[in-house]
Amino acid sequence: MKPWHQQSVKKGRPSCEGWGYKMNAQNLDALSAYFIAEVSDVQETHTLSVIVDNEPGVLARVIGLFSGRGYNIDSLSVSETEHERHLSRITIVTTGTPQIIEQIRHQLDRLVPVHRVRDLTVAALRFKQDKPLERELALVKVAGAGEKRLEALRLSEAFKATVIDATTEHFVFEITGRSNKIEQFIDIMRPLGLVEVSRTGVAALNRGPEGLSSNAQ
Amino acid sequence: MEREMTGAEMVLQAFRDQEVKHVFGYPGGAVLPIYDELIQQDDIAHILVRHEQGAGHAAEGYARSTGKPGVVLVTSGPGATNMVTALTDAMLDSIPLVCITGQVPTNLVGSDAFQECDTVGITRPCTKHNWLVKRIEDLPRILHEAFYVAKSGRPGPVVVDIPKDVQFATGTYAGPSTSHVQHKSYNPPTKGDMTAIRAAVQLMATAQRPVLYTGGGVINSGPLASQLLRELVEMTGFPVTSTLMGLGAYPASGPEWLGMLGMHGTYEANMAMHDCDVMVCIGARFDDRITGKLDAFSPNSKKIHIDVDPSSINKIVHVDIPVVGDVAHVLEDMVRIWRASSFKPRAEVKNWKKQIDQWRARNCLAYRNSDDIIMPQYALQRLGEAIKGKDVYISTEVGQHQMWAAQFLGFEAPNRWLTSGGFGTMGYGMPAAIGAQVAHPDSLCINIAGDASILMNIQEMSTAVQHGLSPKTFILNNSYMGMVRQWQQLLHGNRLSHSYTDSLPDFVKLAEAYGAKGIRVTKPHELDDAIQEMIETPGPVLFDCCVAQLANCFPMIPSGKPHNEMLLPDEASDEAVASAISKEGKALV
Ligand SMILES: Cc1ncc(C[n+]2csc(CCOP(=O)(O)OP(=O)(O)O)c2C)c(N)n1
């Protein structure tokens, strides 16, 4: 077996078992129940929420960590979410083996301006939920005339996209949803005169009443 | 205590409040206000180096030998970039450094001004944290925070970049007590989880073939950690090995000492690691120089890992019982629990030790001595004899001499061994010895050097002479970059591409040129007297010890091989050496 960072890629569904060690070692029934090394080379996609001080350079630290250590960023979004405390929430979608994702979480936690890191995907599974709530917004510009134009408008309604700008030659649609829905919408618009797209990246929360700042992972 | 003062005064006041006694530095335009304050006070001594990298490594030697953070002051631009190697070195070996850099005035930042560089951008990946101070109001808090971050948790280097206008500006200074002690987002762990610790102790009590694998974390945790480690060993009778960084935490003369482990570690240490059933990793990080071939690393053991940095756990090797906490705190709990439970090591441990004795009997550090030529190992053994029982700090450069020093000089106490482990920085040893000498003016500070490495920061001889410091440099002069040559022999058909140094300087004359003493020795029988002369010389010495040119450093785990396939000196025929590394192994470093 190769070391995990050289292992080949298999796509799989995320799990909260296996490599993720528990620091509080709750279920360490002293002599019998050690964490059995379930070394997995399956690549999973996880969504992480990172609460950081909104100070200069903080995003560079986070991005530099990913590029410097060779981690993937599939999507990233950031904005100040608590103005009085100057806290921002960074939402990162990343792909890697469970061990790598565990590493990413700890490496992020090590950054001085990082307050909290939560793997929303693992948290959702722990709460017996399928996945975290994830939404993305996209602005999609489509230009054309005649049948194609009508078709674009019809489809946008099916996708519950709204028209936020239009001339006789174009539409700009606003669409919100999970990334794969947006992906699908863009694919459909491509032959209908797609001009350009702007996407926000994923915003995500766990379901249920608890929040990240009030509840430890 | 709150007072109005300039930014430059604040830097000095923060140093005082943080109990800084020495600063290593080099002036330049962007730090002149701070230098102007330095000259007008006597509390803090400034050691003027000859190159900023030297300041960085000197501060590392100072930090490593005292347990206190090393402090550096350099100017913007080239001053800051010259620090990058030392910062990275400190990052990889978890050495606390506080580096103050000057910066161009805030209104010029971003304009490509003279001697401007993006210091926080450049040093972001090689510091634990860094700050650009844009407002005088933030300066006192950031200065105190910088010391806190550098020292706490897993220690490391930090940079505070201060634009010149902020140094001139006036503001209100507050001491560390009134600044927040608890950081809002940075709270390193100290105590380990008791459930995990209890499970770890119980596992240890069931071990038949245990080994303790200790590292630099034990040293960083402070002298108490070394003391507790010794207690734990005494109680359990478990054999102990250590990484390069952890030497001295357990004494080399101790009954359970296996010697260093890893690529150039002892046969007994590596075999014990490979065959053990319970491994207790204490403040070490499963570095690739330690593990060798990963999937063959200690295949049948349950692993306990104590580390203050959660990101070290499961990073390279999956462990069964992680304990996140400061080594001293965790060991204290372990010792207490073991004692309270009246655990006894299992009877099988006796057989395990017999096995270890058999490995020990292989005498893996043996070498063929000569009456004619000085063998490097012999030179170090004679040096070791001469300094036995003395108050000594040893630093090294990087190469074969470093490994031989680790193998042959027995370390009895923590903080006495200063070497560049994680980064392997040639040029580390001379300034590190200077830093240790600044902290311990009456101790003997010796840099074990190679002829190539020593030239990387030789200019610091001038620093030593100016400041009345007397570090001794013991050069194992083989005219080669010995470690490179050894690898070329092993990996590249003995084609010695650019690893021989023609035209080396005459080190005796060089020493004299700096106003220091030079000693040259070429014959084994001259060694003892010459070493004595070196030790007795009051000032700095360059000791040019001309050794066998083509000696190889064994034992060695060739790249890509597991621990139980070491190359031992008596097996290392030319042919065995030439074919020791497989094709895949060659791709590894
Ligand atoms: C700054 C730096 N450059 C290059 C290297 C690669 N390197 C490792 S050991 C070595 C040779 C060291 O030679 P010397 O100082 O003479 O020591 P010896 O191995 O002969 O004891 C080199 C070039 C390094 N470690 N650091």
From TrEMBL, chain B:
UniProt entry tagged with the keyword Transferase: yes
EC top class, as a word: transferase
UniProt pathway annotation: Amino-acid biosynthesis; L-isoleucine biosynthesis; L-isoleucine from 2-oxobutanoate: step 1/4; Amino-acid biosynthesis; L-valine biosynthesis; L-valine from pyruvate: step 1/4
Keywords recorded for this protein, A-Z: Amino-acid biosynthesis, Branched-chain amino acid biosynthesis, Magnesium, Metal-binding, Thiamine pyrophosphate, Transferase
Cofactor entry: Mg(2+); thiamine diphosphate
Family, as annotated: Belongs to the TPP enzyme family.
Cofactor: record remark: Binds 1 Mg(2+) ion per subunit. Binds 1 thiamine pyrophosphate per subunit.
GO biological process entries: isoleucine biosynthetic process; L-valine biosynthetic process
Reaction(s) catalysed by this chain's protein: 2 pyruvate + H(+) = (2S)-2-acetolactate + CO2
GO molecular function ontology, one term from the record: flavin adenine dinucleotide binding
Pfam families recorded: TPP_enzyme_C, TPP_enzyme_M, TPP_enzyme_N
Residue stretches making up the Thiamine pyrophosphate enzyme central domain: 197-333
GO CC annotation: acetolactate synthase complex
Stored InterPro entries: Acetolactate_synth_lsu, AHAS_TPP, DHS-like_NAD/FAD-binding_dom, THDP-binding, Thiamin_PyroP_enz_cen_dom, Thiamin_PyroP_enz_TPP-bd_dom, TPP-bd_CS, TPP_enz
Domain Thiamine pyrophosphate enzyme TPP-binding: 398-545
E.C. number(s) listed in UniProt: 2.2.1.6
Entry protein name: Acetolactate synthase
Organism of derivation: Pseudovibrio exalbescens
